[in-house]
Amino acid sequence: MLEPESVRENIDPQHTGNAEIMEDGYQSRAEELYAACLASRKIPGAWDAWRDYRAQVTGYVIQNSLPGTSLAVFGAGRCNDFDLGLLLNHFSQVTLLDVDGMAMREAVKFQLLQEFGAVRENPLRLKMFPVDFVGIAGEEYVAFARALLRYFDGQEKASFRAAADCLSRMYDKSRGHTIRLPEGQYDYTVALGVHSQLGNVPAWLLHAAGARVKAMESQGREGAWPQTAGLLDRMEQESTFLSERLNAVILSASRKKAFIGCEVSRAVPSPDGWYAVRDSAVTGAWQAVMDVERLAEAGRVRFGHYLDIVWPFCASENKAYRMMVMEVAR
After folding, report:
1. Domains of the chain
2. Is the dihedral of CA 10, 12, 17, 22 positive or negative?
């Protein structure tokens, strides 16, 4: 985790242009922080570590869908959750949707080298489209990180207001963002672990930028961290909005059924396997589950069956989640 003091070593406080140098320093630190956030999403060794999980999830989707139909994978990314070859053997067409076009291309290239002959025979059976589900640009996250770093360094009210304003502007823009996918375009849709990723960047940046200050306050020193409660509340609200909006888009794009997979809790190993950690709901994911349940209670969707599975997210950090893959029909 980036330490806020780590880029100050070459700054001369007596230098005539010190203010400008400090500004540049905050900008570069913010860019590094955002880059670290993006890097944290790439799990080393995920393809091999998720082998059993991937086989179960891929099999579940195939077993509960009709052959020769179409499938769209929302938030496909590097496709470590799915065996694309098996999906193409079952579905007549598979479409990958994600904001990261490079990740999708790398995934297809990797699986092509493995066992992806079906694509070589008919490349039109696999399509990839870049789709932004949030509507916030990288430079906006960097501006937010920069304001946070200034605030935590100096605990200035003006810097805190700047961070809060950045957050409000980002969310206002996101709420006005339109996800353009035609209604009923695909027979089936699937999204696994996507809802928790939609709104987690601001929270990640907040905790990373304030890590040093939070550690100081845990030792009894008063400071800046308690004032951020309002920012965290706003992030929680927007996670609810983003999760519900994505659910609406997924369901709207589905002609037959959607498979919506969400991390309902942390999971830890035990002698008998895995058990779910109580009160460890994942922000963004639990809102999506609650939304599906409300829609079902209102009679707007049919939801009854689901796959309960452990997602071995990152073994090196001892992180795993209980994943609920819900079958939702309109």
Report:
1. 17-329 (3.40.50.150)
2. positive
* Burial tier of 123 (Cβ tally within 10 Å: 0-12, 13-18, 19+): exposed
Quick: pLDDT tens for 34-79.
999 999 888 889 999 999 999 999 999 999 999 999 999 999 999 9
CA gap 214, 151 in Å, rounded: 13
Cβ neighbours around 154 below 10 Å, total: 12
Query: What pLDDT sits at residue 89?
Result: 93
| β-bridge pairing 302-314 and 319-329 | antiparallel
Q: 254-270 and 273-276: which strand pairing?
A: antiparallel
C-alpha separations of 126 from 119, 186, 191, 330 in Å: 7, 13, 17, 25
User: CB under 8 Å to 271, separation ≥6 — which residues?
Assistant: none
Segments of the chain scoring below 50 in pLDDT: 1-22, 116-119, 219-221
C-alpha angle 226-35-174 in degrees, rounded to nearest 5: 65
* CB contact at 8 A, 260 and 193: no
Amino acid at 114: Q
The pLDDT, as a whole number, for residue 278 is 74
